[in-house]
C-alpha cells in the first residue's frame, strides 16, 4: 500500500509485484485506491497471491480463471475480489511482455493507433496547479479555459458535487425531483461554459451515480441542450434498467463502467443498449485479460471504450496499452490527480499527454513500475511465498 502524500486521505494505491525464478518481475495495481476499501484490496491481493505461487506466469488465461473460480468468491464478482484479480493479472502481463521483449499492447493484438486523444478529467476539483473545488460559475468557466489552453479539446466536470459556495453537497442532494435552484445552478454552469468557451470542444458530464432515473433524466435534458459528448454514471451501476430508462428519454450517449466488474457485469448493459461508452477500470474489471474481452464484447454492441483512470501511473499505463490495441477506442481519461507530484513520484516514469494526446509506452511489458521512493515510503508491505491450492 503506497503513500500518496498529500492525497493520502483519499488515495492509497495498492500495487502487487510478482517475482519469477528467472529474475523477471511485473507490477500490477488493484483499482481501489480511491475512497474506502484500500486495506481490503491489500488483503485480497495477499490472499489471492497464494493461488498462483509456482505457476507459469505465461499462462495468463489459465491463471485468470484459477483466480476467478478457485477463490470461491471471485465468481460472485464485486470490487474487492476483482481488484485483487486485476492487480495480479496486470503484473503477469507485465512479466510476459518483458520475457518476450515486447510492449503489452503487442500481447493484446498490436496497435490500432499511435496516439490516444484524451480529456482533462474532474475539473470541478481544479486542474494541474489551479486547484479547487469550485462553486462560482465564473470559476467553472476559468478552469475550462485553462485546460483548453493546454491543448485539450475535451473536458469532464461533475456539476452536482459542489454548491455555489464550493461546499460538497450531500450524496442525496441530487436524487429524485430536483429543486428549481439546483437545476438552475447546473444549467447556469453549463451555459456559461458554452457561452464563454465556445461550442468547438467536447464536454463529458459526470454524475458519480449521485443521481437516479428521475434527476438523471432532468440533468440529461441539459446535456442534450448543451451538446454534451457523453453523460457518465447517471444512475446506480447495479441497475442497468434505470440507465436504459434515461437513455430512452435523452439523446446524449450514456457512459458507465468503473463500478462494473467482468464481462458478466457488462453483459446486461450491452443487452439493453443501456451504455454507449463503456469505462472499465483495468485495475478492477479483471485486469488486461478480462478487460480486452469486455472491449471486444462492447464492439459487438457498437459501444466505444474509455478506460477509467484514477489510480497510480501503473493504472494509466495499463489503460493506454489496452486502448492502443482495440478498434473501438473513443478517448482516454487524464484525471487531474494524475498531474500531481504526489502520484507521479510513485512510479519510475512520468508519462503525460502532449496537446491533449497520449502515446503508449514502448518499453517491454507495461513500460512502468514502482519507484524506489514508493517502496521505501510504503504504508504497508507484505511478501507472499506460501502456495494454496484453492477450493
Please describe the topology of this protein.
Blueprint: E1 14-19, E2 25-30, H1 38-49, H2 60-70, H3 79-100, H4 104-107, E3 116-121, E4 126-127, E5 130-131, H5 137-149, E6 154-157, H6 180-197, E7 202-206, H7 213-225, E8 230-232, H8 240-249, E9 254-256, H9 262-271, E10 277-278, H10 287-300, E11 304-305, H11 313-325, E12 332-335, H12 341-344, E13 357-358, H13 372-376
Parallel strand pairs: 3-12, 6-7, 7-8, 8-9, 9-10, 10-11
Antiparallel strand pairs: 1-2, 3-13, 4-5
Helix pairs in contact: 1-3, 2-3, 3-10, 5-6, 7-8, 9-10
Net shape: globular
Radius of gyration from the alpha-carbon trace, in angstroms: 20 Å
Q: Which secondary-structure class do the elements indicate?
A: alpha/beta
Number of strands: 13
N→C terminal distance: 27 Å
Characterization of the model:
By secondary structure, this protein is α/β, with parallel strands linked by helices. It folds into two domains: 5-102 and 371-376, 2-Layer Sandwich (Enolase-like, domain 1); 107-358, TIM Barrel, CATH 3.20.20. It contains 13 helices and 13 strands. It has helices spanning 38-49, 60-70, 79-100, 104-107, 137-149, 180-197, 213-225, 240-249, 262-271, 287-300, 313-325, 341-344, 372-376, and strands spanning 14-19, 25-30, 116-121, 126-127, 130-131, 154-157, 202-206, 230-232, 254-256, 277-278, 304-305, 332-335, 357-358. The chain has a six-stranded parallel sheet with strand order 6-7-8-9-10-11. It has a three-stranded mixed sheet with strand order 12-3-13. α5 packs parallel to α6 (180-197). The longest helix is centred in the first third of the chain and has 22 residues, at 79-100. Residues 137-253 form the Mandelate racemase/muconate lactonizing enzyme C-terminal domain. This is Mandelate racemase/muconate lactonizing enzyme, N-terminal domain protein. One of its GO terms (molecular function) is lyase activity. Keywords: Lyase, Metal-binding. Pfam families: MR_MLE_C, MR_MLE_N.
Amino acid at each position: 500500500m503506497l503513500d500518496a502524500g498529500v492525497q493520502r486521505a483519499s488515495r492509497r494505491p495498492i500495487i502487487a509485484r510478482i517475482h519469477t525464478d528467472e529474475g523477471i518481475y511485473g507490477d500490477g495495481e488493484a483499482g481501489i485506491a480511491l475512497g474506502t476499501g484500500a486495506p481490503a484490496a491489500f488483503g485480497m491481493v495477499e490472499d489471492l497471491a497464494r493461488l498462483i505461487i509456482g505457476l507459469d506466469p505465461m499462462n495468463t488465461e489459465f491463471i485468470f480463471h484459477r483466480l476467478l473460480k478457485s477463490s470461491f468468491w471471485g465468481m460472485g464478482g464485486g470490487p474487492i475480489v476483482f481488484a485483487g484479480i486485476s492487480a495480479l493479472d496486470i503484473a503477469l502481463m507485465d512479466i510476459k511482455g518483458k520475457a518476450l521483449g515486447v510492449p503489452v499492447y503487442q500481447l493484446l493484438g498490436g496497435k490500432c493507433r499511435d496516439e490516444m486523444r484524451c480529456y482533462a478529467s474532474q475539473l470541478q476539483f481544479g486542474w494541474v496547479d489551479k486547484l479547487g473545488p469550485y462553486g462560482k460559475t465564473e470559476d467553472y468557466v476559468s478552469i475550462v479555459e485553462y485546460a483548453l489552453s493546454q491543448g485539450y479539446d475535451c473536458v469532464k466536470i461533475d456539476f452536482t458535487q459542489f454548491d455555489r459556495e464550493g461546499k460538497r453537497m450531500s450524496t442525496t442532494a441530487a436524487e429524485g425531483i430536483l429543486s428549481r435552484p439546483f437545476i438552475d445552478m447546473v444549467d447556469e454552469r453549463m451555459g456559461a461554459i458554452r457561452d464563454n468557451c465556445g461550442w468547438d470542444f467536447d464536454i463529458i458530464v459526470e454524475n458519480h451515480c449521485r443521481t437516479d432515473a428521475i434527476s438523471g433524466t432532468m440533468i440529461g435534458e441539459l446535456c442534450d441542450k448543451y451538446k454534451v459528448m457523453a453523460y457518465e454514471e447517471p444512475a446506480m451501476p447495479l441497475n442497468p434498467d434505470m440507465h436504459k430508462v434515461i437513455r430512452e428519454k435523452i439523446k446524449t450517449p450514456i457512459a458507465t463502467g468503473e463500478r462494473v466488474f467482468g464481462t458478466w457485469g457488462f453483459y446486461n448493459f450491452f443487452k439493453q443498449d443501456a451504455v454507449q461508452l463503456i469505462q472499465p477500470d483495468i485495475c478492477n474489471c479483471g485486469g488486461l485479460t478480462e478487460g480486452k474481452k469486455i472491449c471486444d464484447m462492447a464492439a459487438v454492441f457498437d459501444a466505444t471504450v474509455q478506460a477509467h483512470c484514477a489510480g497510480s501511473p501503473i493504472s494509466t499505463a495499463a489503460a493506454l496499452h489496452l486502448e492502443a490495441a482495440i478498434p473501438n477506442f473513443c478517448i482516454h481519461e487524464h484525471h487531474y490527480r494524475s498531474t500531481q507530484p504526489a502520484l507521479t513520484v510513485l512510479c519510475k516514469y512520468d508519462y503525460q499527454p502532449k496537446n491533449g494526446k497520449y502515446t503508449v509506452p514502448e518499453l517491454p511489458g507495461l513500460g512502468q513500475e514502482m519507484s524506489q521512493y514508493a517502496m521505501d515510503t510504503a504504508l504497508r508491505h507484505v511478501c507472499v511465498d506460501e502456495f494454496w491450492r484453492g477450493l
